[in-house]
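Title: Prediction job returns without error message
Component: structure pipeline
Severity: low
Priority: P3
Assignee: unassigned

Description:
Job completed but the reporter wants confirmation the result is attached to the right record. Sequence as submitted:
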Amino acid sequence: MTHIDDKVIELARTALSFDFGGEHFFRHAAEMTQNPRGQAMFLRLAEQETGRMDDLHTLFGAIVGEDEWQRLAAEAAANAHPSKVATDMEAAVALRGHHEVVADDTQALRLAMEMERRVIHLFKDLAIYTEDPVIINLIGKMVEQECFQYDSLQAQLDSVLNVGLWLDTPEFRMDAKY
């Protein structure tokens, strides 16, 4: 196996870890937050995680081959609980000085945003390993979905923290002229 092959295999393993661990992580985040709306949002995100496996199969089947993808998926399924993703995120909570059920809403949102950020970078890193326009299109669609989830989490965090978004153009002038 070449160095590139090793990198793609590692990306596939990471993607599988996110896929198998994402649902568990979002359910765990729902338990971490005290707000019923926050819990509902995290549970909705957990349910959305289950639909990505077909896209991953198409994506990695084309890049690493069907047989290798099936082997990696079976390996990941056998080691899915606890997921490396969920374990890493729980370790991040512990490092911040909180225990599983004590972390607050903002930490649950920040950890979820970090997970989404990692997934976005994973798919962007993967795009350099193929020239197939169908697969590049699929990667773009997956990045777009993850960016939407990240932006939704950011909006939730802004709402919880009671802050607005930075404005990219001035909305008013100090001399009272509009």
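Comment from assignee: result matches the submitted record. The helical segments are 3-32, 36-49, 53-64, 66-78, 84-95, 105-126, 133-161.
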